[in-house]
Amino acid sequence: MITVVEPHVDVAVVGAGPYGLSVCAHTNRRGLKTRILGETMQTWVSHMPRGMYLKSTPAASDLSAGRPGFGLADYCRTAGAPAPTGDDPVPLDLFAGYGRWFADQLESPVEPTRVVRVDRVNGGFEIETGEGERFGAKSVVAAGGLMEHAYVPAELASLAGGPSGEKLLTHSSQHTDLGTFADQDVAVVGAGQSALETAVLLADAGARPTVVARRDPLRFAQKPSAVRNGSLVARKPNSPMGPGWSLYACSHAPELFRRLPHAIRFELVARILGPAGAWWLEDRFTDRFPVRTGHHLVRAEADGNRAALHTISPDGRAATLHADHIISATGYRIGPKAFGYLSPALRRHVTRTQGWPQLHARFESSVPGLYFVGFPAAGTYGPLMRFVCGTGYAAPRVTAAVADRTAEAE
To answer: What is the DSSP letter of 69?
Structure first.
């Protein structure tokens, strides 16, 4: 039975990953009546492979609670686990456990339900869940994470739509256990951290990966401490996203980034911290399996019970790679069908440019009271929003906006 719950809550947070949890922590502190809906840390638990590490350093892996005592190191002390420090990579399992612990500290419990529709009603919003419940909210914060934005290039997508597509082609976000590919030939398409680490984990699991990348050569980041401790000439300012002047600017001036012209913002989001492996991955990657760099995708097709990946090699010749499976580790893009839980009428009123929702001050969209945080906010506020460390910037500002809106409605 569909039920309607009154009175309205002040804010509904859609998504319970790092950004949703951080926003909820801040709205709770402000005394705002909040409901947070979604599976806690779902992206990290259900869409990333076991054995993975975060690309962020430990110091840049804290969720934002607006008060001390809720960082990764605090969780490690509580759990009796060694806390990563310095340049140590953060294990996926540790970070997922931290997120669940953080959620347990919230005054508003995470409701593990799916939001199927959000619509505007009487100056506020009506939210419908997968269980058929309907309730009202003065504001909505969209913090749904990455999964609906998984990107597969058109050259591969035709294979995904074929009768053998599910068996022969997947996106990297569809795998938690790469051991299922043991003793198989797997083509991994991509040049970023996801592709390079997927290939390493495949090899660790007994598969035979081949990396196919347009980039030539592949890049790996420098060890942060090595850059920080370099000579005065080579020294770069540090930031939560890493050392470098551009990263420092993006980390400390997202509001200025928002004021740049669209074209410049989008170019910088694509270019800054572009495809590259983490510094700690290079030794595990080098000389372990075939790597085809400088190859441009042409198409992928089924060839019997295997996949054939056709490319153009650096010398302009046609090349074909046969594999038991292709993993498209090609990242995320905001497509035209994104934010499908917004009603058609509401989606039409969200101004977007090249897929990105255009956000005003304090992360508000063109629809008053509807806010976007995390990856969808990167098109406006820059690459900081693609990382956990961006929660410290986004959560307090969204909360302040929601609090103001709530006060105006009373």
So the answer is: S
Q: Name the region of 274 (left: φ>0; alpha: ψ -120 to 50; beta: rest).
A: beta
Q: What is the pLDDT of residues 316-375, one digit of tens each?
A: 999 999 999 999 999 999 988 899 999 999 999 999 999 999 999 999 999 999 999 999
What gap in Å lies between CA 383 and CA 387, rounded to an integer? 8
pTM over 0.85: yes
Query: Left (φ > 0), alpha (ψ -120 to 50) or beta: where does 190 sit?
Result: left
How do 370-372 and 133-142 pair as beta strands?
Answer: parallel
Give Cα 159 distance to the centre of its chain: 25
Residues in CB range of 229: below 8 A, 6 or more apart: none
Rounded CA-CA distance 281/264 in Å is 31
Kindly state the tokens that stand for 363: 């992360």
Cβ(292)–Cβ(213) below 8 Å = yes
Q: Which residues contact 364 (CB under 8 A, 6 or more apart)?
A: 370, 371, 401
Distance between CA atoms of 21 and 30, rounded to whole angstroms?
14
Neighbours of 81 (CB within 10 A): 15
